[in-house]
């Protein structure tokens, strides 16, 4: 048990820290987590809860995440709610960091968790001002430093940082070898302490091969929950290898970076279209769009949060959805064989598409939630039905 959970004498370290953006803006505050200097693209996330899942989402590789909700860390960290084996973001920025969590499931404070994984945090700044700055001027490279340095020096180094455009970050987060997954979603019978294990899935009616571009664990859990045997493969796995596994369906996972830089994945996905049912999520959706002849583009500040409104054009139902992406598919670049199925009501960007004649569909948002609403869980059932009917 983390001693900070029971130590009433704990005080903040009081180490000064600063964030410098490439456009010259500087924000001064206090450090928590690891004391270091880190860099990345600075983005804001509007989720009110779920910071642990956000920390461990591989899609945040190469990014510094600003939480717009003002109090972060109040329910601590536990080993069950992670979405991967470790935090992937470069840094975390909050208005107020809570050093003493209060939650019966907590085993560690946020501060200690970040220290354990060498992740730097910044708090005590005007997060609303920074959010508005990023909204008006766009997500951009930044440096978060606990070192005593002149602001102008930090700004100059921030301006020299690369953007996410053209960067293949998938290679940094994908698994090194294939593996099987058998963990189901959370159950009340387990008292919400741990997910249940499905056990031997040899007799499962559907076998799904998941391309790991930075997959979140709850995607895998949802596949098991709908009765699938799940095999996860590295991002560069050839299409021929995937087909040799005799899958009933293929899922293209979420992940970080610029989809146009992941050329090797696009080439293999193109070979799989029409061979098996395909379901793309987030980066997987973007890669599928490229494989079908389309283009993608960088959004000004992206969509990051658990409260984005998306309309299903087929039913006209509006879903509240979870997002984490900085790129989008250009629907006009796709041919008449691909149909728009979902649209973002905030900015009208593409949120879903499907092939008109082949068993292929995708969404830009996260139907597995974690964190976030469950409005889009039906998409996993749709994928199952597609595999059943092919």
For the structure shown, list the relevant keywords.
19 strands, alpha/beta, seven-stranded mixed beta barrel, Glucose Oxidase, domain 1, 31% strand, 390 residues, single chain, disordered N terminus, 2 domains, Rossmann fold, ten-stranded mixed β-sheet
Structural summary, described in words:
The structure is a single chain. The chain has nine helices and 19 strands. With 390 residues, the protein is of the alpha/beta class. It has two domains: 3-159, Carbamoyl-phosphate synthase small subunit, N-terminal domain (Glucose Oxidase, domain 1, 3-Layer(bba) Sandwich); 170-389, Class I glutamine amidotransferase (GATase) domain (Rossmann fold). Strands 10-12-11-13-14-19-18-17-15-16 form a ten-stranded mixed beta sheet, sandwiched between helices. The chain has a seven-stranded mixed beta barrel with strand order 1-2-8-6-4-3-9. It has a two-stranded parallel ribbon with strand order 5-7. Helix 5 links the parallel strand 11 (206-212) and strand 12 (228-234). The longest helix has 12 residues, at 378-389. It starts with 15 loop residues before the first strand and ends with a helix. Residues 1-11 have low confidence and may be disordered.
Spans of at least 5 consecutive residues whose pLDDT stays below 50 are: 1-11
Order of helices and strands: EEEHEEEEHEHEHEEHEHEHEHEEEEEH
The termini sit apart by 50 Å
CATH architecture of the largest domain: 3-Layer(aba) Sandwich
């Amino acid at each position: 048990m983390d001693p900070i959970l029971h130590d009433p004498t704990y005080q903040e370290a009081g180490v000064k820290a600063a964030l410098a953006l490439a456009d010259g803006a500087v924000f001064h505050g206090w450090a928590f987590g690891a004391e270091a200097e880190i860099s990345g693209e600075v983005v804001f996330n509007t989720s009110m809860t779920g910071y642990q899942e956000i920390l461990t989402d591989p899609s945040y590789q190469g990014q510094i995440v600003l939480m717009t909700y003002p109090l972060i860390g109040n329910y601590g960290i536990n080993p069950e709610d992670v979405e991967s084996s470790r935090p992937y973001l470069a840094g975390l920025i909050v208005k107020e960091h809570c050093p003493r969590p209060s939650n019966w499931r907590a085993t560690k404070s946020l501060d200690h968790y970040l220290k354990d994984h060498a992740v730097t945090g910044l708090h005590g700044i005007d997060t609303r001002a920074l959010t508005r700055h990023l909204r008006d001027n766009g997500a951009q490279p930044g440096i978060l430093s606990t070192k005593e340095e002149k602001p102008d020096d930090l700004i100059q180094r921030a301006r020299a940082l690369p953007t996410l455009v053209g960067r293949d970050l998938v290679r940094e987060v994908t698994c090194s070898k294939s593996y099987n997954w058998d963990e189901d979603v959370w159950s009340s019978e387990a008292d919400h302490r741990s997910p249940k294990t499905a056990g031997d899935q040899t007799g499962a009616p559907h076998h799904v091969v998941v391309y790991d571009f930075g997959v979140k664990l709850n995607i895998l859990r949802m596949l098991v929950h709908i009765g699938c045997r799940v095999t996860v493969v590295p991002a560069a796995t050839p299409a021929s290898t995937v087909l040799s596994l005799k899958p009933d369906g293929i899922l293209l996972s979420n992940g970080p970076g610029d989809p146009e830089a992941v050329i090797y994945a696009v080439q293999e996905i193109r070979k799989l279209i029409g061979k098996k049912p395909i379901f793309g999520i987030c980066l997987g959706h973007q890669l599928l769009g490229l494989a079908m002849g389309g283009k993608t583009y960088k959004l000004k500040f992206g969509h990051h949060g658990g409260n984005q409104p998306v309309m299903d054009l087929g039913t006209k139902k509006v879903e509240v959805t979870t997002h984490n992406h900085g790129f989008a598919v250009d629907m006009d670049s796709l041919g008449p064989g691909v149909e728009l199925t979902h649209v973002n009501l905030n900015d009208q960007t593409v949120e879903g598409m499907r092939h008109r004649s082949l068993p292929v569909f995708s969404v830009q948002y996260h139907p597995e939630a974690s964190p976030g609403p469950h409005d889009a869980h039906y998409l996993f059932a749709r994928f199952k039905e597609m595999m059943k009917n092919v």
